[in-house]
Model the fold of this input.
Amino acid sequence: MPKAASSVLVLVAHPDLRRSRVNAALADAVRGLRHVTVHDLYGAYDTAGGDRRGARFDVPRERALLGAHDTVVLQFPFYWYSTPPLLKQWLDEVVPYSRVYGGKGLRLAVTTGCTAHSYGPDGRTGFTMAELLRPLEAMARVTGMRLDTPYVVYGAGGLSDDALKSAAERYAELLSAG
Ligand SMILES: Cc1cc2nc3c(=O)[nH]c(=O)nc-3n(C[C@H](O)[C@H](O)[C@H](O)COP(=O)(O)O)c2cc1C
Done:
């Protein structure tokens, strides 16, 4: 009997998914998968609001979502070599500095404007993607989450429609593999 696909929570953190080309295509490719829940963070929590302490999320709801899935995917466009601010805030407020979610899978799905070459050894960025993603890797270690190889779609601006379609299909395959 084939192994049942494990449940996957995809946190999409794009400040304006309606104007996104790449993240929107990736999210669309996995939204229909039976074992996948797509959670549009900016759509759900937008930029307005927050209580007096600056808290913005329904933390019990977010933790329940996290707890209910085997794997969480953080999907985001790279903004100044980091996550968009709402995703950072989500991590700060929702993920405890402990091993409560130890054993869960964690995958990063990152889209960039710069080419793969610019993140290579001779690239103008000066750092590889693995180096730039170190803070999230450290978080995975401390929380005991199992970090998968990041899925990176480079060079968003120069991506042809065909290349984007292939990238989206590959993403769906990866998430289907559990
Ligand atoms: C504020 C801002 C900061 C950005 N910083 C980076 C960056 O540090 N590195 C990079 O490769 N691309 C950077 N980009 C380009 C985005 O990563 C790229 O436009 C995005 O991944 C495309 O995905 P989308 O079609 O879903 O918007 C930045 C874009 C914006 C708006």
Summary: The first strand starts at residue 8 and ends at 12. The beta strands are 8-12, 36-40, 71-77, 105-111, 146-147, 151-153. Helices lie at 22-31, 41-45, 59-67, 85-94, 129-132, 134-143, 161-176. Residues 8-176 form a domain with the Rossmann fold fold (CATH 3.40.50.360).
